[in-house]
Design a protein that fits this description.
This is NOA1 protein. It contains 14 helices and 18 strands. The chain is α/β, with parallel strands linked by helices.
């Protein structure tokens, strides 16, 4: 209904302004639903707690509506927020969330351009997210990942930002989050606002939701602030979402440490059935699991049951009357609760340029983005063989003296196909868009509009049969770690869709990944897959292996 102006009320899921005048713009609510919510005595405040149609479909049906948005919209929203005048006499802390699978992060070097010289950041804390998806390739693998993360920060050239720390977490399974909260409360306390920044699909909104139900926010905040909408579709968050940060007084920190100490003495056997069920569910999803608890719970008053005694009796001729359900009043913060509050903001993700995800449909994105622990797949290839990762990437082994090992680290739903180099072009022509290569999907019609694969020659020198020399990163589809005999020179040719980034990552992220494999499958280039066990943080082991 173009006659109804925008509401001025934000969607509680993505932050967009709710409106019913343009179905292709952010924040759209169907006009009939919009009038139902606003026709009451409260007017547009009836939209409080409501979500837009896009968030509703993402949450309940996994469907992503296309939006008419300028390409720079997300960047403009983030930059405008970071250029706000100083609050509380100091700049904000930037909590940059980085997808470890995307190292080196393409957006991190752009951070300086989002800031204003008049509003300098007081500090930068970089969080490597999705660590739960990566298998442990040997002892000390978390230390090596942290080193790679610190090196990526150094290479990004962020000299203007005081680097507070780098942390490894899983916003989804909770691993490392209690440590992150303790670090924030020790180093930043409640000195100023905190902004969650990062590229699309880095996990900012998932982290925002986890922090909302933790010791980092005011105890009443989860009753007032809704969870952010989370989706694999890039660019879900469209505007700022926020919750108030709790002031970590000495008493609160002491009580929190006591809770953490008590929980660290528990074993899995001492957890409740619900806690064990949740833990087992998370173990299936990730290699590293943690639990985010709350020390400061708001004591809720007991529910008062109201009824009319006369309504409990009726004659034989009467039908029982049902009283209409009372509208549940939404809780709000009082003025005193937020007048001097410091806020934690979730911001829109910055769109990654030259990323293969930008070429994919909603169904294809769900197959490409890993949501469960990645099981590495290792193959031994001779010169003259080719490896396909779906129809999104290809690696040819052109020249070498000996066989080499190629370990694929990508979504478990993406197929890997090995063929002779002489057949590779024919395989792509015949099966791209079909069931064998799976992504893209849609047959010949889909492939007519999909960019062709373009090659890049790569020369590597092996450093030993136990350690990979480099990763060949096929945009955001995944990567192939190459392990070769010492001093063995390999000539490879790698392909990704035109307009996407192909890079060689040295040193590799998981150098000993080829060791995570089972026995060689007879008459095949493949090894049997092997999934390492999950590790639970903050629980005492029972002594059983």
């Amino acid at each position: 209904d173009p006659s109804i102006p925008p509401s001025g009320v934000s969607c509680s899921g993505c932050g967009a302004e709710l409106q019913c005048c343009d179905s292709e713009a952010p924040g759209f609510v169907p006009a009939e639903k919009y009038r139902t919510l606003t026709d009451g005595p409260t007017g547009v405040t009836g939209l409080q707690n409501a979500v837009c149609q896009r968030c509703w479909l993402l949450c309940h049906h996994g469907q992503a509506l296309g939006l008419r948005l300028p390409p720079e919209q997300h960047r403009m929203v983030v930059s405008a927020a970071l250029r706000r005048p100083l609050r509380h006499g100091r700049g904000p802390l930037l909590l940059y969330i980085l997808d470890l699978l995307e190292l080196p992060d393409p957006v991190l070097p752009q951070l300086q351009g989002l800031m204003s010289p008049d509003v300098p950041a007081a500090g930068l804390l970089v969080v490597g997210n999705k660590v739960d998806l990566l298998p442990a390739d040997g002892p000390g693998h978390l230390g090596r990942l942290r080193e790679r993360l610190a090196a990526a920060c150094a290479q990004a050239g962020l000299r203007e930002f005081p680097l507070v720390d780098v942390r490894l977490v899983s916003a989804k399974t909770g691993f490392g989050l209690e440590g992150l909260i303790s670090r924030l409360q020790r180093s930043w306390k409640c000195a100023g606002d905190v902004y969650l920044l990062g590229a699309t699909n880095s996990g900012k909104s998932t982290l925002f939701n986890s922090l909302l139900h933790s010791d980092y926010c005011k105890s009443r905040a989860p009753d007032v602030v809704n969870r952010a909408t989370v989706s694999p579709w890039p660019g879900t968050t469209l505007n700022l979402l926020k919750f108030p940060i709790i002031n970590p007084t000495c008493d609160r920190i002491f009580r929190r440490q006591e809770r953490l100490k008590e929980e660290a003495t528990k074993t899995e056997d001492q957890l409740s059935s619900e806690e064990r069920k949740s833990l087992n569910h998370l173990k299936k999803q990730g290699y590293l699991v943690g639990e985010v608890g709350r020390t400061f719970q708001r004591q809720k008053s007991s529910t008062v049951v109201e009824f009319d005694p006369d309504m409990l009796s009726y004659s034989i001729d009467e039908e029982p009357k049902h009283t209409p359900k009372k509208h549940e009043e939404r809780e709000e913060f009082t003025y005193n609760e937020v007048k001097d509050a410091r806020w934690c903001f979730d911001t829109p993700g910055i769109i990654k340029e030259n990323c293969v995800l930008n070429l994919l449909t909603e169904k294809e994105v769900k197959l490409v983005l890993p949501t469960h622990a990645i099981i590495p797949r290792t193959f031994i290839l001779k010169p003259g063989m080719a490896l396909f990762l779906a129809a999104l990437g290809r690696v040819d082994y052109l020249k070498g003296e000996k066989p080499a090992w190629f370990s694929v680290v990508a979504s478990n739903l993406l197929p890997v196909h090995i063929t002779a180099l002489s057949n590779a072009d024919a395989v792509y022509e015949k099966h791209a868009g079909g069931e064998l290569l799976k992504v893209p999907m849609g047959g010949e019609e889909r492939m007519k509009e999909f960019p062709p694969l373009v090659p890049q020659d790569i020369t590597l020198k092996g450093i030993g049969i136990t350690e990979a020399v480099a990763d060949i990163k096929l945009s955001s589809a995944g990567w192939v770690a190459v392990t070769a005999h010492e001093e063995e020179e390999l000539l490879l040719r790698a392909y990704t869709p035109q307009g996407t980034t192909l890079m060689v990552r040295e040193p590799p992220l998981l150098p000993y990944i080829s060791a995570i494999r089972g026995a060689r499958i007879a008459h095949s280039a493949a090894y049997r897959t092997k999934k390492p066990p999950s590790l639970v943080e903050n629980l005492r082991t029972t002594g059983r292996r």
